[in-house]
Amino acid sequence: MSTAFWLTNTTLETGYQNNNGVVIGTNTERFHLLIDGGKISKIIPASEPITDDLPKKDVKGLLMLPSIIEKHCHLDKTLLDDRWRAVTPVNSIFERFEIEKKILPSLETTTQERAEKLLNNYLTYGVTHVRTHVDIYPEVGLKNLEEVKKALQTFEGKLSYEIVAFPQHGLLRSNAKNLVSEALRQGANYVGGVDPATVDGDIEASLQQMVELAVEGNAGIDLHLHDSDHLGVFTMKRLAQLTKEAGLQGKVAISHAFGLGDILLSQADEIAELLADAGITIITSVPINRQFPPVGLLREKGTSVAVGCDNIFDVWSPFGNGDVLERASRLAEVSGWVDERSLAQTLSFITDGKTPLNHQGEQAWPNIGDDASIILVDATCSAEAIARRSRRVLTMYKGEIVSGSIENSRQGL
Amino acid sequence: MADKTYWLTNVRLETGYQYENGSVAGTKTEQFHVRIEDRTIKEIVPADKLLITDLPKQDANNYLMLPSFRDMHIHLDKTYYSGPWKAPTIPSKGIITRLKEEEKLLPRQLTVAEERAKNLLDLLLRAGSTHIRTHCNVDPVIGLKNLEATLQAVEAYKGKASVEIVAFPQHGLLRSQSVSLVREALQNGASLVGGVDPATIDGNIEKSLQTVMELAVEANANIDLHIHDPGHLGIFTFKRLAALTEEAGWQGRVTISHALALADISLEEANEVAEMLVHQGISITSSVPIGKTIPIPLLQKKGVEVSLGDDSITDHWSPFGKGDSLEKVGILAERFRLSDEFSLGQTLRYITGGVTTLNAAGQWIWPHVGDDADFVFVDASCSSEAVARSASRMAVFFKGNLVVGTL
């Protein structure tokens, strides 16, 4: 751990500006922060003198925000760092499976190299925690897991991570139970899964097996659920029941959960309550080519929601870049959140709930004792950072600068 | 700026598609030297040919050359861009809230309008756009003052981009009694007649459209109307506009911006409307709003000319917008699941005034000798990659001159 140092002249949010009860802006002030042992150990107004001789890094008024969390990616699937290729059209998800199985091993770059390229991009975008899904299926065994673990080891001390053992080809369909179980012993923390109905063909057996694996491996669950409308919603209801029966509340996530976007808001309302009660998190990549869950409603009902990128240039999609803040901006845009407070609060979906100000405008972050996992942004407030996808100047993980520099503020074209 | 004659060497150009099992699996490119003279492309020779010349040479370092982009809908005169951050308010009365805000906001912003317009032009240039259509408020709120500011900015960029200005009665041509102001604007630098929602804003579809048409005919100007009106209200407006276009003989001279109603109707009906638009040569400009997108590929397939625009770039209407046409067309591709090599590459047409590097048969169609030397160099191996990955722009040329970036 590095020695203690001061970040001087940091801009922090101190409250909302109100006009007749309407938030019209964000107040900020400058502070000096002492970073010690990877944590924020002191916060003093910039007007107060620093009396010790510890090193100082002058931030020159850059805005400080909590560093970003990527809640859904596939480090083993990206083609970044390999040559360009567009997506091959297919007639079914099963054809896509086969293409992926064939292409990935044929690449000139290794899974580790490509994963490292993506991790590097994440640091540039201000991400210091990733949840990655890793494909587990009979042909590949645990090889992708090993490669991804090697890549993550390269980034030791630069970010934290969670690994989902993801039976891409179906937990039941590809008979992946033992492999997933083994993956959990070898570093994966979550049991994955995909469409218990359309891929596995047996909702009940598929969900039961996921839950068993999670209980047995003392792991969480993160299920990819693309199944549409009531088929998806039914699956969510069953998973919610099984989650409670197994005492897995707070450890289960449903990624995509498209079904929630297909049904009426009045119906989604009820499901949102159910999910909140079971402590299930919804993770969305904010797709623009189909309906997705009503994030505003979910938040209102107390369901936890997180945003992730999902596909970043892989055999499934040629789009995506790993900028999670850009995804949050997209969420705000689709949701019609254009005012100061709505924009600012959007940050919570990419920081595990952390925002500098709470809904009432009271300071909520940073607090003494928090990890010094932060980003410095070329913006005046969170709302601007979200709307304008402001440039990340520097990323710090537990007190260590892991990307960018204060001096280097040069911008490209 | 003097019109230089010179060679651009080692330029990567697309030469055809690669096929696998009968479908496009990749794009072939080769290197060329390109001679620029009189603001146009005068000669294209393979790079393996030895270049014996006394003309100056500029190495393009094998970057891919694409036609420069067009941002066909923006508001240079209202932007907050390069000014202090400000989020929009919550509009309690919809568009009326925004119009009310302009009464105070626009006069206050006048002192910085020209400077911000220039900064926004810079942003668009950096993204590779060298042709811009800007809608400029012309109404009792601001008179012709925003037009003057816009003209000043455009004048300063005349060697870098071509900009056309729409005289835009934001507060309603009839509603705000702006007819004579629009007429005056057309005599003073604006080249198109604008308008907004003849039904909801002006309250009289027929009279509003008739007046637009009269102004256009009188000034021999093209038309670009903002029509957000939803459902069959919007469609009815399009139909009346098409009829008036035919009567006036204004085919090929009318654009509908937004045309949001097309997102509300069935695809069968949208097909019919598209045929009507094609018949009257009415083009569509969309900002690809991600919450409500009109069926752009369907329109294109039917033969409707569709362009993209950025619309707001952080102003009191919207805090979003990056001014990047290439990113915009990437969003269009993502929205409509255009993710294979062929479809991605062909989407370029939406931001180049219909130009693609290869046609559907994979034949080279851009650049040709004689084309304007308006192009952008990107860090990508082909158009498809440029669109999907929002490739970095390295250098932008307008009429043969480097206007931003370096090679």
Secondary structure: elements and pairs:
The complex is a heterodimer of chains A (413) and B (407).
Chain A: E1 5-19, E2 22-36, E3 39-45, E4 56-58, E5 63-66, E6 68-73, H1 93-106, H2 111-125, E7 127-135, H3 143-154, E8 160-166, H4 177-185, E9 190-194, H5 203-216, E10 220-224, H6 229-245, E11 252-255, H7 259-262, H8 265-277, E12 280-284, H9 295-300, E13 305-307, H10 324-335, H11 340-346, E14 374-377, H12 382-388, E15 392-397, E16 400-404
Parallel strand pairs in A: 1-4, 6-7, 7-8, 8-9, 9-10, 10-11, 11-12, 12-13
Antiparallel strand pairs in A: 1-2, 2-3, 5-14, 14-15, 15-16
Helix pairs in contact in A: 2-3, 5-6, 6-8, 10-12, 11-12
Chain B: E1 6-20, E2 23-37, E3 40-46, E4 57-59, E5 64-67, E6 69-74, H1 95-126, E7 129-137, H2 145-156, E8 162-168, H3 179-187, E9 192-196, H4 205-219, E10 222-226, H5 231-248, E11 254-257, H6 267-279, E12 282-286, H7 296-302, E13 306-308, H8 325-335, H9 341-346, E14 375-378, H10 383-389, E15 393-398, E16 401-405
Parallel strand pairs in B: 1-4, 6-7, 7-8, 8-9, 9-10, 10-11, 11-12, 12-13
Antiparallel strand pairs in B: 1-2, 2-3, 5-14, 14-15, 15-16
Helix pairs in contact in B: 1-2, 4-5, 8-10
Short description:
Chain A contains twelve helices and 16 strands. With 413 residues, chain A is α/β, with parallel strands linked by helices.
Protein described:
Chain A has 413 residues and is α/β, with parallel strands linked by helices. Chain A has 2 domains: 106 residues, Urease, subunit C, domain 1, CATH 2.30.40; 252 residues, TIM Barrel. Chain A contains 12 helices and 16 strands. In chain A, the strands form 3 sheets. An 8-stranded parallel beta sheet of chain A has the order 6-7-8-9-10-11-12-13. In chain A, helix 10 crosses helix 12 and helix 11 crosses helix 12. Chain B is built from 10 helices and 16 strands. Chain B folds into 2 domains: 114 residues, Urease, subunit C, domain 1, CATH 2.30.40; 252 residues, Metal-dependent hydrolases (TIM Barrel). Chain B has 407 residues and is α/β, with parallel strands linked by helices. Chain B has an 8-stranded parallel beta sheet with strand order 6-7-8-9-10-11-12-13. Chain B has a 4-stranded mixed beta sheet with strand order 3-2-1-4, with no helix packed on it. Chain B has a 4-stranded antiparallel beta sheet with strand order 5-14-15-16, with no helix packed on it. Chain B starts with 5 loop residues before the first strand and ends with a strand. Helices cover 32% and strands 25% of the residues of chain B. Chain B is globular. Chains A and B meet through strand 2, helix 10 and helix 12 of A and strand 2, helix 8 and helix 10 of B.
